Amino acid sequence: MGTGLRYDPGPKLDRHLKTVEDLKNLRGGGKLVSQLQFQADALKLIRKELSPQKGLLGFVGGPLTLFCYAVDGSHAGGLESSRLGLHDGRFEGFSQLLLDLLAENMALQARSGVDTVAVLDTCAGEFDADTYTQIAVPVLKELLKKFKALCPDVPVTYYSKGSGPDHWKALRDLPISCLGIDWRHDISEVLDCWSDQWRFKVTWIRTGFF
Known about the structure:
alpha/beta, globular, Uroporphyrinogen decarboxylase (URO-D) domain-containing protein, UROD/MetE-like_sf
């Protein structure tokens, strides 16, 4: 039986979350993290080979980004169905199924030797700052709360593609240690405006890979 997930060349899902009824076809819960043991095994092998001077980054997709993939199969384009899903119960239901598993996945990576776990929200900038603040950030906050309960001393890095200062304001009270800044922003201006106001480090992500 197939898994419903292919790579051609990026991730391709055979099914999409088009209605609230489709949530019944999904499983959630932290216990499912046992199916991700291969991540822990790989990270331990990498950690063993790295010199002590080199850091190891773990990562997961952000809840908003994973939702967009589940609904539209991408983080680009109009994302019309995803936008509707933020208000029709799909995002809420998806998040309820996702958060415990995602937090446990972050903890799995943290316990396997990573120095920080990054949450990569490549869809964040596709939504206006008000929508992001009111809908996406509360779910992100809950995820980080769950993760910190499991691994309180492991720093979190957060990167949101295409976002800007109006989005970042909503992150002030979240337990984020490093904020990845999109290459579209002038790093000197960002540092001047934000570094003294926030407790976390600002890092400029120059590559367009994400």
